[in-house]
Design brief:
alpha+beta, Cytochrome p450, 5-stranded mixed sheet, 3-stranded antiparallel sheet, 21 helices, binds protoporphyrin IX containing FE, endoplasmic reticulum, membrane, metal-binding, CYP450_sterol_14alpha_dmase
Length: 469
């Protein structure tokens, strides 16, 4: 037997101690207090059910609800106890709950680290006056008709000129060629036309690639390529700032004035503070345009209806009066958007309308695909039907929730819908376009499901043939 001062002496105690530690961790993770929802068991401390959730969130949530016999249940996901409400009937009261009870500002602030924001910047930007003002600016500059029209016109003009240039090209890969064009259109709308960031889809893509892990809390320093791209984006915003002399959108000018003059966010952090809106303006719109076009091209009746509506529209279309495009886009977002809406429970003891008690510090989550793929709401929900929201179906569109809801309801939704319509118009007005082969080779990137509009799996693409009209 080794002497007591030797580490070997204690070796036999290690396994039972480890076992005890493991049991305590599991107990802490799964403890259910009276009134709280059931907790889904996972043998993995900290990580919990993150891997099975990540593989197929919809199937996972349906199975968890069935296994626990409850529509409200708690799941451990990467260290976060997250209470899912799987019955959409519970969502409206939750989304209306005061942000002092179910907080979103702390969730935004956590995301701020993914954009290289320092704690002092996050404090000024997401809480108090900074938080209130940025939201008031979104509401004003992304909703008022004159600002919306200006931004849409700038995006549309870039889309039309870029797509007209493609009119006589040989067959090209749709995803690889059109994604940078949509990205540039979003940047032209937000920043001044010709801003150096407009041509840097490569930077956006290099940063966005690591976004799922960054937003889950992994430090930026672990992703040198994403950090380099983020720093380069901030440098370009620093070199050509959205200041008073710039011809950028009114939104960007107002943000610059707020960050620099009123919140006194120092350089270079005030440039980093603009990156989240730059990212938000492109991250969902780019894949939404790509999916809308792919689905349209692979359904001949959709192709004909979309082409007819676009070609019959005037040079400056009234995007609010294009029912076919609206139906095609809402159907695409129904099938391909999967954003989770998350809130943080401010303090324990809150009992929801569904009668469950929430624990302070836990997260509450809603997953819109539970609604989007509900056969009682949408007939044959797995099928993409371009005319689902036409005629009588129009009122069903309110059941589609690609833009979240409540305090974090996407402020860019009006602009996004117009921009996607402008994209389809630009394509179908410029060219006759046809898939070479099947769109089946373009699959969704399952690793990103849950983070907005689904992305195309890296490397997947399909050739298209275009002919000038
Ligand atoms: C198809 C396109 C789009 C989709 C599906 C989409 C979806 C969403 C969703 C689901 C959220 C809420 C996130 C959450 O609850 O955590 C959100 C937030 C946001 N979106 Fe969008 N979005 C789109 C386009 C845009 C565009 C074009 C802009 C800006 C020009 C934009 C700006 C924002 C901003 C600033 C927020 C944060 C709001 C806040 O802090 O409360 N989005 N978006």
């Amino acid at each position: 037997m080794p002497p007591p001062f030797s580490p070997l002496f204690y070796l036999p105690y290690f396994p039972p101690l480890l076992l005890l530690f493991y049991a305590l961790l599991l107990l802490r993770q799964h403890r259910r207090l009276p009134g709280e929802p059931p907790v889904l068991f996972s043998p993995l401390p900290f990580l919990g059910s993150a891997l099975s959730f990540g593989k197929d969130p919809l199937a996972f949530l349906r199975a968890a609800s069935a296994a626990l016999g409850a529509s409200v249940f708690t799941v451990v996901l990467a260290g976060e106890r997250t209470t899912f409400f799987s019955d959409p009937a519970d969502w409206p009261p939750l989304l209306r709950t005061s942000p002092a009870v179910l907080r979103f500002d702390t969730i935004s602030a956590d995301t701020g680290a993914a954009f290289g924001l320092l704690p002092a910047t996050k404090e000024r930007l997401f809480y108090g006056e900074g938080g209130r003002e940025t939201h008031a600016q979104f509401a004003k500059f992304l909703s008022q008709p004159e600002h919306l029209s200006e931004m849409t016109a700038r995006a549309a003009s870039h889309l039309s000129s870029s797509l007209a240039e493609l009119a006589n090209s040989p067959p090209f890969p749709l995803v690889a060629i059109l994604s940078p064009i949509v990205y540039a259109a979003s940047m032209h709308a937000l920043l001044e036309p010709g801003h150096p960031l407009c041509a840097r889809y490569d930077l956006f893509a290099a940063y966005d690639k690591s976004f799922p892990l960054l937003v889950a809390g992994a430090p930026l320093a672990f992703f040198p390529a994403a950090k380099k791209a983020l720093d380069a984006m901030a440098s370009l915003l620093l070199a050509s700032p959205a200041g008073p002399a710039s011809a950028c959108s009114a939104l960007m000018r107002a943000r610059y004035e707020l960050f620099v003059d009123r919140l006194s966010i120092p350089l270079p952090q005030n440039a980093y503070s603009q990156v989240p809106i730059v990212w938000a303006a492109a991250a969902n719109t780019v894949p939404a345009c790509i999916w809308a076009l792919l689905y349209t091209l692979s359904h001949p009746s959709a192709h004909d209806a979309v082409a007819a509506e676009c070609r019959a529209s005037p040079a400056e279309p009234d995007y609010d009066a294009m029912p076919v495009l609206h139906s095609v886009i809402m159907e695409t977002l129904r099938v391909e958007s999967s954003s989770i809406t998350v809130r943080r429970v401010a303090a324990g003891g809150h009992v929801t309308k569904a009668g469950v008690q929430l624990r302070g510090g836990d997260r509450v989550a809603l997953f819109p695909p539970l609604k989007h793929f509900d056969p009682e709401l949408f007939e044959e929900p797995e099928e993409w039907r371009w005319d689902r929201f036409l005629g009588e179906g129009e009122k069903l569109a309110k059941e589609v929730m690609p833009f979240g809801g409540g305090v974090s309801y996407c402020p860019g939704r009006h602009f996004a819908l117009r921009e996607i319509k402008a994209f389809l118009c630009a394509v179908f007005k410029a060219v006759d376009v046809e898939l070479v082969g099947s769109a089946g080779g373009v699959r969704r990137d399952e690793a990103r499901v849950g983070l907005g509009v689904n992305q195309v799996r890296p490397g997947d693409d399909v050739l298209v043939k275009v002919k000038a009209l």
